[in-house]
Amino acid sequence: QLQLVESGGALVQPGGSLRLSCTASGFTLDDYVIGWFRQAPGKEREGVSCISRSAERTKYANSVQGRFTISRDNAKNTVYLQMNSLKPEDTAVYYCAVRWMGIATLTPFEYDYWGQGTQVTVSS
Asked: What gap in Å lies between CA 73 and CA 80, rounded to an integer?
């Protein structure tokens, strides 16, 4: 059974850090493009970061460039999103998703299978 599970979301103060995890079961994450997305209340889902199959290519939204880092741990079948210098505008539900075929992009509709999301709240 295919499953993607996000974890690591929490309430954090501005300037703080979090590491989100996206763990797969039923398939090997390293074989596919993985993306991180977020959706704030009343807003559309937006791409945050993505990583190619071999981890040789990563992409970031302009709003998180230099603050967020995506990485893979193949032994744990997990993709991480390290988030530093968090801002209130980073508050959202964060989702990971897999793209079975194609290149790494930040376009949500190009991804095929999604996790349930984890809440990140940045507030003092």
From this structure: 8
Rounded Cα–Cα distance for residues 47 and 30 (Å) = 19
pLDDT at 90: 98
Structure token pair of residue 66? 């230099």
Give me the amino acid identity at 59: K
The tokens 């704030």 sit on which residue? 40
On whether the CB atoms of residues 19 and 80 are closer than 8 A, the answer is yes
pLDDT digit string, tens, across residues 56-67: 899 999 999 999
pLDDT digits (tens, 9 = 90+) for 42-59: 999 999 999 998 778 999
- Give the C-alpha separation, 109 to 87, whole Å: 26
Alpha-carbon distance of 87 to 103, in angstroms, equals: 29
Rounded to an integer, what distance in angstroms lies between the CA atom of residue 11 and that of residue 51?
26
- Is 35 in contact with 49 (CB distance < 8 Å)? yes
Edge-first strand order for the sheet with 78-83 is 3-7, 18-25, 78-83, 68-73
